[in-house]
Amino acid sequence: MGRLDGKVAFVTGGGRGIGAGISGVLAREGASIAIADIDLDNAAKTAAELRARGTKAEVIRCDVTSVDSARAAAEQAVSQFGQVDILVNNAGVVGDHIGGGLITLEDWDSCYEVNLKGIWVMSQALLPHFRERGSGKIVNIASIAGRKGGAGLAHYSASKAGAISLTQSLARDLGRSNINVNAVCPGLLWTDMWRHLEAMIGRDDTPEVVDRRAYFEGYIRQNCPLGREQTPEDIGMAVAFLASDDARNITGQSLNVDGGIELN
Ligand SMILES: NC(=O)c1ccc[n+]([C@@H]2O[C@H](COP(=O)([O-])OP(=O)(O)OC[C@H]3O[C@@H](n4cnc5c(N)ncnc54)[C@H](O)[C@@H]3O)[C@@H](O)[C@H]2O)c1
After folding, report:
1. The CATH number of the domain where 150 resides is what?
2. 244 contacts: CB under 8 Å, gap ≥ 6
3. In the chain, what is the straight-line distance between the N-terminal and C-terminal CA atoms, in Å?
4. Hey, which of 33, 37, 62, 213 would you mutate to test ligand 1's pocket, going by the most ligand atoms within 8 Å of its Cβ?
5. Active-site annotation holds for 219
6. What is the average per-residue pLDDT within 206-219?
7. Residue 114 lies in a domain
8. Does residue 242 form part of some domain?
9. Is the alpha carbon torsion for 145, 149, 153, 158 positive or negative?
10. What is the Cα–Cα distance from 136 to 177, expressed in whole angstroms?
């Protein structure tokens, strides 16, 4: 018996990295998974892995920045699965530059569009369905970068602070509709996103780093009380809790899963 038996989860950006990890844990807990992504190749791979383990999983084309795409994806999920119980707003981007003087308007816009507006757009797309069913769980993937301003990461940090604030507002707005809205703030995970960020180190106004993995590990040693990196599975377990009935009286909260890097 899993905590999410009979439930259907819609995971944006579910094709790789943290989204794939979340999908795996929710599936382990008994949920069927709609993998909603703009990258259909990765989504197909993740879906195949889930199906091989006996989970019902479908790939759904979805760009969370587009109202039309989000609505179409929500409709497709409801028609293919019959219902959606859980929305995980995980899709995110970090932009192509770091460093205060180098962040471009395109970086700013992409972080705002995907990391913040995307949560709003996708939540609105599934809201009528949740209201009709009389319940729903929304879990937003923010970041510890949203807990305080980050040097060189203004665009990303501001979008993630917005995601934490939006989680609180949606929780207040939707509580009477029996919809819980919470967030998870991941710490440091060695995914494609971090590797993308690392690729900018040395290129932009940051010091030259020869061994990127060593830099990542050194940063964790210096900043993380538990002294270890986080994994997509760690984030998935927090999402599974917040999406389950165990968390039925929790809403508007943002939970750090970061080994203690940030304490509020
Ligand atoms: N990796 C980390 O250390 C870290 C730390 C804190 C927070 N996060 C957050 O966790 C989430 C997942 O990060 P990740 O490291 O797995 O990143 P990733 O880049 O590996 O994966 C992001 C996924 O989102 C999808 N995506 C991007 N734009 C989209 C759009 N417009 N519509 C639908 N899907 C879209 C991508 O195709 C990809 O599958 C993001 O919100 C990220 O900001 C990551």
Report:
1. 3.40.50.720
2. 3, 4, 29
3. 34
4. 37
5. no
6. 73
7. yes
8. yes
9. positive
10. 8
| Distance (Å) from CA 163 to ligand 1 centroid | 14
224 is a domain residue: no
Q: Degrees (nearest 5) of the Cα angle 130, 136, 138?
A: 115
| CA of 232 relative to ligand 1 center, distance in Å | 11
Q: What is the mean pLDDT of residues 202-216?
A: 65
Cβ atoms of residues 28 and 2 within 8 Å: yes
What spacing in Å lies between the alpha carbon of 173 and ligand 1's midpoint?
A: 26
pTM of the model: 0.96
Burial class (CB in 10 A: 0-12, 13-18, 19+), 92: buried
User: What sign does the dihedral 149-153-155-160 (CA atoms) show?
Assistant: negative
3-state secondary structure (DSSP) of residue 172: helix
Residue to mutate, 71, 167, 193, ligand 1, most ligand atoms under 8 Å from C-beta:
193
pLDDT at res. 213: 80
> Rg of the chain over CA atoms, in angstroms?
18
For residue 140, pLDDT over 90 is answered with yes
Is 213 a domain residue?
no
Model confidence at 32, pLDDT cuts 50, 70, 90, reads very high
How many independent structural domains does the chain possess?
Answer: 1
